[in-house]
Amino acid sequence: MVGSIIWPQAILLSMVIGYTGALLVGLLVGSVRYTVDKLQAARLKELEAERQKTIAYEQRLEALEAEKQMTIAYKQQRYLNDLKDQFIVNVNHELRTPLTEVYGYIELLKVRYAELDETTQAIFLQKALNSCEGSCS
Question: How far is CA 118 from the centre of its chain?
Answer without folding.
Answer: 71
